[in-house]
Design a protein that fits this description.
This protein is of the alpha+beta class and 120 residues long. It has two helices and nine strands, in the order ββαββββαβββ.
Length: 120
């Protein structure tokens, strides 16, 4: 569900979470003790291929942010990043003893670097 459309002449699809990612993010937010937090996905210049993802908890919202909700968890993306990650899905994989982590499945990325941490 989109709760806020960015102010733009370009339509941007929301960023969604898989059920596994929503469950993990909800667990992490509860551990922080601040129910006003949302997961913010941003794109930063840098990395081998030009851009890298930045994910963090944020209680702030800007009027131009794209906000979507999955499983009771809000995902917030600034308008500039939204143009690069619109329609992406964030997944969480639990790998047992090897840990786990979040992965962004971004239909807009053309290629990634060998380390998998950046894209263009």
């Amino acid at each position: 569900m989109i709760t806020n459309e960015p102010t733009s002449d370009v339509a941007v699809a929301p960023v969604m979470l898989t059920d596994a990612a929503a469950l993990k993010v909800k667990e992490l937010i509860e551990a922080e003790g601040n129910p006003g937090l949302a997961l913010r996905l941003a794109v930063r210049p840098g990395g081998c291929s030009g851009f890298s993802y930045d994910m963090f908890f944020d209680a702030e919202r800007d009027g131009s942010d794209l906000v979507s909700e999955t499983g009771g968890v809000e995902v917030v993306v600034d308008i500039h990043s939204a143009r690069l990650v619109g329609g992406a899905t964030i997944d969480y994989q639990d790998m047992g003893l090897q840990g786990g982590g979040f992965a962004v499945n971004n239909p807009n990325q053309q290629r990634t670097c060998g380390c998998g941490q950046s894209f263009c």
